[in-house]
């Protein structure tokens, strides 16, 4: 039984990717409750809920899909009670974003073959929401009118070595009333650079950060898969009529784990030539690390970020201290530290060594 | 109704003092659950229970009294289920050890006027239990036969400035089969000394640590109160027949708060001349501070004490780390720190500044 009618009218959809297990934010983030489900900014709302509410400014809840791991389905519905249950797409295995996007495209195709959809991360922060909504709306329009693959590229504010970069091919095209104003052709995608290269990228003005935000039509992306990653489609399309039916989950549980583990960046974007980017100054942060959270949040006179309501600091500098609001925390003399106290775990770690945490925790758990 | 018969036979009693609120061990120790009720050594047993079990080697549970603040009665009975409820003596106010010992003496007198009793702290550690039991047995015997006030004096192992000292008056008296072998007359009690004085004390070999462990007969100590602190007795003996009856608590609630707030050391010991001490090498620690706990417990190769079962330390030196056994703790790079994680509070504090903690916490709570 299909619950949505096929239509000849195009419609915009948004797929929010929420399958990550966020191992870098341990112990705040755990496999049982990864980063996207946390109120990591201390604003009283999880990142996924903030993302969802932002998306509602562009499309109704019925056209928002959450793509996540099976084990997080209940958490998704708990955080987003407005979301129809069938809009949670459950991956039975973690096969990276390539198969994930293909599955999403096939589901949306079953509802509306003319749809255009965005793929967005669930756990990033956007400070300039109005600019963001406007850039995304433009991306939808450009993707539909040109049959293009569109990404939002973030105007870099520092030579960060933690992000991939988008190299621009040309000046932005179009005239003032053209939807292509401010849209640039992409020359190439670049992996995370070393410091010197990052500095060159940023000073050249010809590079943007790749924030993992994509917009394309069902038609465009499925054609791109057919050309560049046909095996994924072959596996997923053995019984194409299952998409959008009550049988979909059973079917996906069987075939999805057999798809290649590959990112959509590598499988599609780097191999396509109709890729465009919209330079976007939207106050973006991927909040990928405790350090990025420290950079992002308000600091006290000692350059320390406190998330927690009963924290008493003495001579504690340039640190980030996160705890449950019910917990009294007394700290003296720490400098350049991450302190994260959760119900089941406590982390006290030098900020500069943050990248080690993932390995340490892996060896422990 | 008296539940115990008066008798003409002497009997040994032990009164364990358990009224302290242990503010120095915050956040492990709180007013709701002070140090004596904690398994502060991580051995699966609270300090008061260890103390109680040690005392059972000298007297039966029926002759062990716990003297504590009213609010801890339920906790005492929870930790010592073998203890008759009437053996918990409840102070309605904190008036220091002077009135506390007088009340205890009057209660024991109501059961057995010929009794000899020891007064012992509830929250100290004794490593050499056999030596301890033997020294206490000797103290009971000497106190009864000589009508003396007897203390156990701890052979000092370092010039500690945190303890009071007992100055010896003479060489130890008696022949080999005399109960007074190894018993010394006390010349004076000395307050906590400065470092130089402490060094002189220890090198002279003529001083012991005062560990607050006393033995005396009911008769001896009540006479000493009559001579040296008669006001306390006057207040408590307005209706002496209340002791040992169902009316005792009501009576004590009324009169006890009117007694002078004074230590038994100051009220009695420093003013008496029949005071003796038994030099005791019993592996004693008062565990008065996190630092003393650090000194006392087994350390790893980095001189760090860990209390907790899932603690993972990297480059962490000369520290003490205490946490719940269910909690995963990951720490890197701390040196000379106290880390104590409790359900409601987290402390991360330099060891050298430990004496500040009490004030910091006071200002917070």
Description:
2 copies of one chain form a homodimer. The first copy, chain A, has 365 residues and is of the alpha/beta class. Chain A contains 11 helices and 17 strands. In chain A, strand 2 (64-69), helix 2 (73-79) and strand 3 form a beta-alpha-beta unit. The first copy, chain A, is globular. Chains A and B meet through strand 15, strand 17 and helix 11 of A and strand 15, strand 17 and helix 11 of B.
What are its keywords?
homodimer; 365 residues; alpha/beta; five-stranded mixed beta barrel; four-stranded mixed sheet; 11 helices; 17 strands; 29% helix; globular
Mean pLDDT of chain A: 91
Biggest β-sheet strands, sense, barrel of chain A: 5 strands, mixed, barrel
What low-confidence regions of chain A span 5 or more consecutive residues with pLDDT below 50? none
Approximately how much beta-strand content do the residues of chain A carry?
15-25%
**What is the terminal separation of chain A in angstroms?**
43 Å
Name the helicity range of chain A.
25-40%
Largest interface: A-B, 30 and 30 residues
- Tally of alpha and pi helices of chain A: 11
Oligomer kind: homodimer
> Structural class of the helices, strands and pairings of chain A?
alpha/beta
Total strand segments of chain A = 17
Radius of gyration of chain A: 21 Å
Lateral arrangement of strands in the main beta sheet of chain A: 6-9-7-8-10
- What are the secondary-structure elements of chain A, in order, as H or E? EHEHEHEEHEEEHEHHHHEEHEEEEEEH
| Shape summary of chain A | globular
